[in-house]
Task: structure prediction
Amino acid sequence: MDLLQTPVAARRLLVVDPCEQCERLLPELQASGWQVQSCELALAGELACDVGLVRLRRSHLQQPERLKQLISQSGTEWIAVLSAETLGLPEVGGFIGEWFFDYHTLPFDLERVSVALGRAFGMARLRGKVATGEIDRPHELLGSSRSISELRHLLARLAPVDAPVLILGESGSGRELVARTLHRLSPRAAGPLLAASCSALDERELFGDERGPGLIEQADGGTLLLGEVGELPHRAQARLLRTLQEGRVERAGLATPVNVRLIVTSRVDLESEVASGALREDFYYLLAALQVRTTPLRERRDDIASLAGYFTRRYAAEVGRRPRSFSDEAIRALADHDWPGNVRELATRVRRATVLSEQRQIEAADLGLVSGAGSAGPFGSLEDYVHRAERQALHDVLLRYAGNMTQAARVLGISRPTFYRLLHKHQMR
Result:
């Protein structure tokens, strides 16, 4: 038995666009333990609930966007209540199958409705959606791994400093997100953030000419982000170095004061670029004083759960579908994959799966992955096997039940304190 007991939250039911039969049912549902509220669809977005019930009408099918938006934003399960006549409409089957956990035809049967509501509440809990009080964080630095926690701490320290920052890391590992976070946390947040790749940047675009200002002047009061800085030509390196040191940019024979913070990224070691002569040494020393290094996704697998969940919600909203959960096979495939394309690859695969999946759950095939294809080799001792099995089990339940630690511990057959101790042991929290 858990030493830490979680208080049982009241079950909140929201009934939308209720009919007369729905209204008569509400007192009986309240007597069975539900906290019941009812309202029109236009007001439903302002009320929180653990399970939703909609009296589905022909008008909802003719203009479904507001109802889809409500279901997507509520983050829980919904049940449709409809007449036999509405159920016979050709478009209703696909609509219910896509957006609702279950449906109930009139007239009401209290026992059947109660069972359906209980199952919907249970499914919402398994998906970690009941009474969490949490709002999805943006994709910026999403995750709970040690490397992401340390990165957040470092950026909080670097953001107020006005010096240039060099961000190193593999392609797709979030270098631009780190730069945008630095800008957002800095005193320059109200100013512009302009970004360009040095591989396709000429001096006129950067410094301007008689025809108009370049990126440096346009970013005045804000931040300029230059990607793959090692590809910037020597002459431009020298001009940019002088511009930063003097606080002014020369254009068409005139010197204009500028106040810009420079952030640069590189996927290669810039010291080797200096050694080869591709990068000026004085320019490198200006850039390298403050450095941030992003961690590839294969080295922070603990974050795959939160990232995959974020992307499926994001892309489901884009295509007008309900967010999908992941099957056991898909979970294993996500855990086994080496992610050469890092977070960008994960986002692309989840987007593909969100579009292609025809089921409630995303399968490994939807992701373009094969379960069990990991590259990790065998360990030499029983203790190593146990350690690996513990970590894999923790990763799997976190991916499936992220946000509901009690359920995750219950699935593993351990108490919550033991579950938290294992998370700490494997540095997954």
Q: What stands out?
A: The chain has a mean pLDDT of 83.
